[in-house]
Amino acid sequence: MSVVGVGIIGSGVISDTYLANLNSFPDLEVVIVGDLNVDRARAQAEKHGVARWGTAADVLADPDVQVIVNLTIPAVHVEVSIAAIAAGKHVWTEKPIGLDLEGVDTLLRAADAAGLRVGSAPDTVLGPGFQTAKRAIAQGVIGEPLFAQTTFQTQGPDLWHPNPQFLFTPGAGPLFDMGPYYFTALVSLLGPVDRVAATGMKAREEREIRTGPNAGTRFAVQVPTTLQVLTVFESGRQAQSTLSFDSALERHGVVELHGTEGSIVIPDPNTFAGRSAFVKPLTTLRDGEAFDQPWIDIDQQGAVVGRGLGLLEMVRAITAGRPHIASGELGRHVLEVMLAADESSRTDEFVTVASSIPPVPPVPADFDPLARTL
């Protein structure tokens, strides 16, 4: 396989970072951008030096495209991905992989029957920040992992997004918009989830757009905007997660993992780099003494790029004939975890997660996204 041709469907806000990153990888070339709004597709193509633009159908029919990057809204992720498979293309989809398990299962069966791959964001867990921490945990810096805590709390995307309404509709909210980052990280570290309990609340029935041409417009809130989620893993380990669009205090990117011989802080799972550091248990503590626990920083290894790293790893895996890491199966398991949390928040009961996946492998320490390998 030579340089792989990439077609992008969806030219919204997130397409900027994809186009910038994908065009920096020597193994990939973006050859066409498509959108329902062809003028928007043209603007993004011209901005990033892509020669062709058009509709989604134009991208699907382009003979130079081997992989489709699906950047459409979550409600049509499965529909667009299935169309890509039907066109004979591999698919990389933004998160979540879909909004219902039946649709995702149809997609994965179609891909398997066609001998094609499906990859799913987030691929932040492939970045050097998260992978540095993952390798340290595997090497035993905290002993046997026991439990984790994650936090994402913010005032909400209506503060900064010019059209935030879709983030407050079914299939979005903090659970489905931000949950994929945190639950993918937890599954990558602690293995598949067995059951989930959650409680949720909606702080306000209406919210107001704060910026852009529609500032001042009010819209209905259709989903919980704060959730507390408890996940129990097949291994018996546990995690507690806060996901909120209602907090005056901006506090996000918190991932802590505690083990038998220490605790580690892990970079924000919505980024590709960041600090990893751990502490060891105190040996003694007398009444009145300070909790003096020095942090031991771990040097980050690997080139920092951004979104699209998972697509690159998938393309190289196809060439090598091995499984890729940010797989459709991983995306489906994480989706089931989030659906279980959503159900539990309405029923006040633990919900069993029926699916399971093998352990998520690490990225090789010598993986260089900026090398030409194909």
UniProtKB/TrEMBL annotation:
Gene3D superfamilies: Dihydrodipicolinate Reductase, domain 2, NAD(P)-binding Rossmann-like Domain. Coiled coil: none annotated. Residues 5-118 form the Gfo/Idh/MocA-like oxidoreductase N-terminal domain. InterPro entries: Gfo/Idh/MocA-like_OxRdtase_N, Gfo/Idh/MocA_oxidrdct_glycsds, GFO_IDH_MocA-like_dom, NAD(P)-bd_dom_sf. The keyword 4Fe-4S does not apply. The keyword Metal-binding does not apply. Residues 130-265 form the GFO/IDH/MocA-like oxidoreductase domain. Keywords: NAD, Oxidoreductase. GO terms for molecular function: nucleotide binding; oxidoreductase activity. PANTHER family: BCDNA.GH03377 (PTHR43818:SF11). This is Predicted dehydrogenase. It comes from Microbacterium pygmaeum.
